[in-house]
């Protein structure tokens, strides 16, 4: 480390940290000193592709597999993420739908969960900023309000998508995605290979290919191999950050600290530090998803230019959310087929993704090892399970514009690869850990970024929203050095 | 939910342990059972049988040797009971991977041709090979 004290210390280099830093740097003076602590190491895209091919590289084994990083008290439940520089930008599938305005008002509108302290309208300009940085591809008309066109044209529909769009209009749209439709900013067009965790053609947005300039900024000092495990909390402020590197413990002082690890590790750090907020570590969750295969009578479902071509909102918002979870439909375009003579693509495949709510059965605690959180998961809520039942009742009618022969439902997936909650957002310590600027209610120089802060677990993919929340937090929490001088 | 699923799986496992020996399930190897499932699923195609066997070898080599005894029993059970991909996601996954690993889609799904194995389908070695995507079915030009 170059210094013993910093103006800002950021933990992690994933979406939440990077977008927070991006906005912070835009507002702060050239004299600023910023330390970024990343537990993993960078791995270039080409080396990741080699690893996927089964080839040994100089980077193999540098970053641990997610399974080895925490104590999973429910081994049948997966919590997937990527350790290393760029975080889960190296495993996300780059789906970037916005939340619907009503997602932020679940208590007021439907009497379940809680309202978020931030509303859609306030987040809108930050959504727009993230979409521009990611060069998101999407349609002109969406079920959530937008003020300008997406940076890239939409991906192509399949034949089934075209029919559903014709019937449902803006409730069935080309999926907004950071998988490029056309070459942009060093990224190639997506060609529907269907393995987006590491894109074989470098089409999706990652922190590494973002060209955001954050980690090249001379004010930023990046320290890799440094795992943060605790904070020194004195008189309602964070004074120091504790981390381990090469088996040595370090303690570094920061004026402001931003935790941008995931929801398991943000909670672990807070709990290790003695945070006594009643909600810290509580309400861990994610969406619940399952695949529905739909066999079609004499309709060839070909085309589509990306992994998920479309999103359907027909089962998403409405009064049913008082009783049963919203469902977001994803039109899959992995290389599936129907194993019957002459009917190979007389089939559609939809991933049905259900929202959930924080429940007491799902939580994070510390373990005997300060570096490893213990993760408890009792299962999805009855609210989410009722959403599945409702979907199964209604899907035949929703698909009645298609010549449906049969619908086959798979069991739910072990994960949607999203880790939400554990430091939820709200108005006070009576209902939450952080405020709408992601600042801890008690420790006001501490930000807890990312999907940790989610109040409820809408079915829409979280990355766009958590990135926009980071921009909002940095933008509204710090004065601009330009206006100050 | 986990409890219900556990009971379901435990029930199936117990039933399999009782029923499968009487069906002769243990007389076939895991590889034979897997090949049999593929041959059954695509009974209407002319599959290169040696290619099917090679695919199964390659598949299990890639998957590793950490599969549970239950997984072995399950595959043998699926084989004995003629379970197809409509009934099992595992069967769908394996049979889909098999056909993607052949020349079937290069031959534009010509069911009269012998289907030959070409090596495990790997989008990292052959990206953009999704056989039904717009690359292979481009949209009609606007009138």
UniProtKB/TrEMBL annotation, chain A:
Pfam families: GMC_oxred_C (PF05199)
Protein name (database record): GMC family oxidoreductase
Coiled-coil parts of chain: none
InterPro entries: FAD/NAD-bd_sf (IPR036188), GMC_OxRtase_C (IPR007867), P2Ox-like (IPR051473)
Domain Glucose-methanol-choline oxidoreductase C-terminal span(s) in chain numbering: 413-469
Keywords: FAD, Flavoprotein, Membrane, Oxidoreductase, Transmembrane, Transmembrane helix
Classification of source organism: Bacteria, Pseudomonadati, Bacteroidota, Cytophagia, Cytophagales
Record-annotated membrane-spanning stretches: 6-25
Domain of life per record: Bacteria
Cofactor(s) it depends on: FAD
Family as reported in the entry's similarity comment: Belongs to the GMC oxidoreductase family.
From TrEMBL, chain B:
Keyword Signal in annotation: yes
Record's signal peptide: 1-27
Record keywords: Signal
Protein name: Twin-arginine translocation signal domain-containing protein
Organism expressing this protein natively: Hymenobacter citatus
Lineage per the UniProt record: Bacteria, Pseudomonadati, Bacteroidota, Cytophagia, Cytophagales
């Amino acid at each position: 480390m170059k210094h013993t004290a910093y103006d800002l210390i950021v933990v992690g280099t994933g979406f939440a940290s990077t977008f927070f830093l991006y906005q912070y740097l835009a507002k702060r003076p050239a004299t600023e000193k910023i330390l970024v602590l990343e537990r993993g190491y960078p791995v270039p895209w080409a080396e990741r592709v080699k690893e996927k091919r089964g080839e040994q590289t100089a980077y193999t084994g540098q970053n641990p597999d997610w399974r080895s990083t925490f104590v999973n008290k429910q081994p049948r439940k997966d919590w997937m993420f990527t350790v290393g520089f760029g975080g889960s930008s190296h495993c996300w599938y780059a789906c970037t739908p916005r939340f619907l305005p009503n997602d932020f008002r679940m208590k007021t509108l439907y009497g379940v969960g809680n309202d978020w302290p931030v509303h859609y309208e306030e987040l809108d300009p930050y959504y727009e900023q993230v979409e521009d940085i990611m060069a998101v591809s999407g349609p002109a008309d969406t079920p959530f309000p937008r003020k300008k066109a997406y940076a890239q044209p939409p991906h192509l529909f399949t034949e089934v998508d075209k029919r559903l769009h014709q019937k449902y209009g803006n409730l069935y749209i080309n999926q907004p995605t950071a998988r490029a439709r056309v070459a942009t900013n060093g990224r190639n067009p997506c060609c529907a290979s269907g393995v987006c965790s590491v894109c074989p053609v470098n089409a999706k947005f990652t922190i590494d290919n973002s060209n955001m300039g954050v980690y090249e900024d001379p004010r930023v000092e990046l320290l890799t191999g440094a795992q943060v495990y605790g904070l020194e909390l004195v008189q309602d402020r964070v004074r120091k950050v504790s981390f381990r590197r090469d088996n040595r413990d370090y303690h570094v002082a920061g004026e402001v600290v931003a935790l941008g690890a995931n929801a398991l590790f943000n909670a672990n750090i807070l709990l290790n530090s003695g945070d006594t907020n009643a909600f810290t570590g509580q309400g861990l969750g994610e969406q619940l998803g399952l695949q529905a295969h739909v066999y079609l009578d004499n309709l060839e479902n070909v085309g589509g230019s990306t992994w998920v071509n479309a999103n359907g909102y027909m089962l998403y918002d409405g009064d049913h959310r008082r009783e049963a979870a919203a469902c977001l439909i994803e039109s899959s375009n992995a290389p599936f087929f129907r194993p019957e003579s002459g009917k190979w693509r007389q089939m559609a495949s939809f991933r049905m993704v259900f929202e959930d709510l924080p429940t007491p059965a799902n939580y994070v605690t510390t373990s005997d090892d300060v570096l490893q959180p213990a993760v408890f998961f009792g299962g999805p809520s009855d609210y989410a399970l009722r959403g599945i039942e409702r979907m199964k009742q209604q899907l035949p009618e929703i698909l009645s514009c298609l010549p449906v022969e049969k619908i086959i439902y798979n069991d739910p997936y072990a994960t949607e690869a999203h880790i939400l909650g554990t430091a939820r957002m709200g108005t006070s310590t009576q209902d939450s850990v952080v405020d709408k600027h992601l600042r801890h209610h008690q420790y006001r120089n501490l930000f807890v970024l990312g999907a940790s802060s989610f109040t409820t677990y809408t079915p829409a993919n979280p990355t766009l929203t958590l990135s926009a929340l980071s921009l909002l937090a940095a933008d509204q929490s710090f004065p601009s050095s330009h206006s100050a001088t | 939910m986990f409890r219900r699923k556990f009971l379901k799986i435990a029930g199936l496992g117990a039933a399999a342990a009782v029923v499968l020996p009487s069906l002769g399930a243990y007389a076939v190897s895991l590889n034979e059972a897997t090949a049999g499932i593929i041959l059954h699923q695509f009974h209407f195609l002319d599959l290169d049988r040696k290619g099917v066997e090679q695919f199964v070898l390659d598949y299990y080599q890639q998957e590793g040797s950490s599969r549970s005894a239950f997984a072995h029993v399950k595959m043998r059970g699926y084989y004995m009971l003629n379970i197809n991909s409509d009934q099992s996601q595992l069967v769908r996954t394996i049979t889909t991977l098999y056909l993607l690993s052949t020349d079937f889609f290069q031959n534009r799904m010509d069911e009269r041709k012998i289907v030959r194995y070409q090596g495990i389908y790997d989008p990292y070695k052959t990206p953009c090979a999704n056989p039904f995507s717009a690359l292979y079915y481009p949209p009609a030009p606007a009138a």
